[in-house]
Amino acid sequence: MRHFKGRFAALMLAAGLTVAQGAAAQGILRVGMTAADIPLTTGQTDQGGEGMRFMGYTVYDSLIEWDLSSSDKPSVLIPGLATEWAVDAEDKTKWTFKLREGVTFHDGSPLTAEVVVWNFDKLLDDSSEQYDSRQAAQGKSRIPAVASYTAVDDLTLEIVTKTPDATLPYQLAWILMSSKAQFEAMDKDWEKVANAPSGTGPWKLDTFVPRERAELVPNPDYWDETRVPKLDKMVLIPLPEPNARAAALLSGQVDWIEAPAPDTIPAMSGNGFVISSNAYPHNWTWHLSRLDGSPWNDIRVRKAANLAIDREGMGALLGGLMVPAKGFLPPSSQWFGEPTFDVTYDPDAAKALLAEAGYSVDNPLKVKALISPSGSGQMLPLPMNEYLQQSLAEVGIEVEFMVVEWNQMINLWRAGAGDAAVEGSESINFTYFIQDPFTGLIRHLSCDLIAPNGTNWGHYCDPEMQALFDQIKTTFDPEEQDAVLRQTHEKFVNEALFLMVTHDVAPRAMSPKVKGFVQAQNWYQNFSSISME
Amino acid sequence: MFSYFLRRVILMLPVAFGVSVICFLLVQIAPGDPLTAIMPVDATADEQAAMRAIYGLDKPLPVQYAIWISNLAQGDMGKSIASGRPVAGEVFGAVQNSLILALSAAVVAFPIGIFLGFLAGYFRDTLLDRAVTAISIAGVSVPNYWLGIVLVIIFSVNLGWLPSMGAGPGGSQDWSWDWLHIRHLVLPAVTLAVVPIGIVARTVRALAGDLLTMDFVQALYAKGMSRGDVLRHVARNAAATALSVMGLQLGYLLGGSILIETVFNWPGSGFLLSNAIFQRDLPLLQGTILVLALFFVTMNLVVDVAQAAIDPRIKRS
Question: Nearest residue of A to residue B162 by CA position?
Answer without folding.
Answer: A251
